[in-house]
Amino acid sequence: MTTDKYDLDWLAFSYAAGELENTDHEQFEARLAEDQSAREALARAVELCQTVSAVETQRCDYITPAAHSHNNWNQRLTWMAVGGLASVLVALLWSGVVGPAWQAASRSFHAFSQQNLASAWTETRTQIADVREAGYWPSLTSADSDDDIPSTATLDDVSLDDAPSWMTAAVFSLPANSSATDPANNQDSPPSPPGRGPG
Amino acid sequence: MPSPDGDKPALNEPAAINPDITPLDPSVVAALYVQHGEELRRFLLGILRDAQLTADVLQATFAKMVERGHETQETTRKAWLFRVAYHEAMAYRRREGVGDKVLRRFAWHTSGVAGSSDEPLLRLESVQSVRDALEELPPEQRQVVRMRIYEEKTFAVIAKELKIPIGTALGRMRSALQKLKAKLTDSSKPDEKSSSQ
User: Fold this and answer.
1) Measuring CA to CA, which residue among B92, B155, B47, B9 is closest to residue A12?
2) Is the CB of residue B37 less than 8 Å from the CB of residue B57?
């Protein structure tokens, strides 16, 4: 087999790369046993392949971290943007610039609760007055505690004295027209002013 | 007569020892070692560039000859030894990550002295020369080189992916190899001069 140097190198490379046909493959292997130049060509081919592969691997090692750092920066910027937006949103909510509807809804809900509370309290007072007029209201007299509570004092009076502040506030905040819409106040006699029981 | 695949041992795998088959006479193996051992050692050294690995692979090669040499014909034993030695060497390279040491071996090749004190410098020069040679290749040639050597694709696959005839892919590779070898030879010449002084 007479081949020039480049042909031999190409043959050796093709053998190392596993690209030779069966016949050529066997011929080259037989040649390896006898031809020192074929062995040297094979060693050169292997060397060249390994060197190129190593250089390419090195190049990829250089490129890959750069790509990673680019991705990292993108990720960082994204998180920074999300964090910034969240901070601005919180600040706006805190300052009241954003969300007047929410605040108005909260206020109306608060007023509605107070109105309901006042209505319930007024109804209770009316029922107590009716019971007292019928003579069924027990008096709070005690043999041992005359000094503390007057004998003529009623539960209603005590209740009035000890009326909690929320109740007073609720009644005072009751709108003027609430009695008309509230079935609890839809009676013949208007509800007594706060702090004054019918008895 | 040997079996049809008698000259094609299952490489890279320990040969299964069949008690029914008589291994090759150790004296025959010893004679083969005396005859071809040195040639094989040089051949392996050229591929592995590492004396210790060369010794290991040489030993493994003759161990296979002891186990499976009876399947070979006497006239083809030398070729069998070289083939097995080559495949064992390539298997060693893959297993042991010899590819990582390729740059050092390249330096060894150019300086002619393993582990010389100026090895790192030579190594950098070799890397640079290979890199420069690759950079100077036309893009289409470099692409084929990269796909064939680094990505380990066959020429058939490369031709299909690049939508070119396989002859064109082979031609590009061949031209690229010639240029690379010329560049690498040029880069190693000053070292050869300095090492010969």
Assistant:
1) B47
2) no
In this structure, are residues A122 and A197 in contact, taking their beta carbons and an 8 Å threshold?
no
Kindly report the nearest CA distance between residue B36 and chain A, in angstroms: 9
In one-letter notation, the amino acid at residue A53 is S
A169 and A114 Cβ atoms separated by less than 8 Å:
yes
- CA pair distance B114, A3, nearest whole angstrom: 32
**H helical segments located in chain B:** 26-48, 51-68, 77-96, 102-111, 119-136, 139-145, 155-162, 166-196
Rounded distance, CA A92 to CA A83, Å? Answer: 14
Q: How far is B18 from chain A (nearest CA, A)?
A: 27
Do A43 and B130 make contact, defined as CB atoms within 8 angstroms?
no
Question: Which residues in chain B have Cβ-Cβ distances shorter than 8 Å to A48?
Answer: 177, 180-181, 184
Task: Please report the ipTM that was assigned to this predicted complex.
Answer: 0.71
**Mean pLDDT, rounded, for A145-164:** 51
CB contact at 8 A, B84 and B9: yes
Q: Do B49 and B90 contact (CB within 8 A), yes or no?
A: no
First-last CA distance in chain A: 134
Under-70 pLDDT residues of chain B: 1-22, 96-127, 184-197
Which run of H or E residues covers position A80?
helix A36-95
